[in-house]
Amino acid sequence: MLNKVIKIIIVKFLFLLFDLIITMPTFDIISEFDKHEIKNAVDQANKEVTTRFDFKGTDSSFELTDDKLIMTSESTFQLQQMFSVVCTKLSRRGVDIACMEVGDPKPGGKCVRQEIIMKQGLDSTLAKKIVKLIKDKKLKVQAAIQGDQVRVTGKSRDDLQDVIKMLRAEDLDMPLQFENFRD
User: Fold this and answer.
1) pLDDT tens-digit series, residues 35-87
2) CATH number of the domain encompassing residue 132
3) How confident is the model at residue 11 (pLDDT cuts 50, 70, 90)?
4) 143: helix, strand or coil
5) Res 14 pLDDT > 60
6) Is there a domain that residue 1 lies in?
7) What global pTM score does this model have?
8) How far apart are CA 30 and CA 80, in angstroms?
9) Dihedral of the CA atoms 126, 128, 134, 136 (nearest 10)?
10) Is residue 67 located within the same domain as residue 91?
11) Is the pLDDT at 18 greater than 70, yes or no?
12) What is the distance between the alpha carbons of residues 162 and 165, in angstroms, rounded to a whole number?
């Protein structure tokens, strides 16, 4: 009986020890934005454009569909003014404007349209670039691409924080967020 209890205690201890060895600190690198904040910023920009004096009498407006923002106005100069308005509203709401891919103005009839694509998620080239940057620094961490995010695993929390600091200092095409930091 006592022998059986000791075996059970040893097995439980081994499972606990194995669990401690397996779980290493990790975090995920993503690139996302809050769609509600973008919708609110576009609504504010529409309100400002309708009340501004230099847009009186024009049919200028913003239209948001999924991940596209379409600006419509009578001239390219007004589109430039509208772009600065929407950039101001987005930055005030905490949306990084680096996630925007601005298209060329397209004239059509008496109005000019311009599409802005809101990019979200890490594409494969950017994910590979992030993994390469991490490996080039020769820190004691592993980086793995998982869909549209990169998971970084390391033995110590300090190494992971060094990776975050290094990536914030880099000039990448997309804004990065770091989430699911597990110790």
Assistant:
1) 898 899 999 999 988 888 888 888 888 899 888 999 999 888 888 998 999 99
2) 3.30.70.860
3) low
4) strand
5) no
6) no
7) 0.73
8) 30
9) -120
10) yes
11) no
12) 5
Please tell me the distance from the alpha carbon of residue 176 to that of residue 153, in angstroms, as a whole number.
17
Structure tokens at 61: 């407006």
Is the pLDDT confidence value at 25 over 70?
yes
Count of CB atoms within 10 A of residue 85's CB? Answer: 21
Q: Do 107 and 154 fall within a single domain?
A: no
- All residues at 6 or more sequence positions from 138 whose CB lies less than 8 Å from its CB, including other chains: none
Annotate 158-174 with DSSP letters as a single string: HHHHHHHHHHHHS--SS
Q: 140 lies in which domain range? A: 24-32+122-182
Distance CA 87, CA 102 (A): 11
User: Structure tokens of 182?
Assistant: 């597990």
Return the exposure string of 106-135: e unless at least 16 CB atoms fall within 10 Å of the residue's CB, then b: eeeeebbbbbbebbeebeeebbeebbeebe
Q: In the structure encoding, which two tokens stand for residue 1, read together?
A: 């009986």
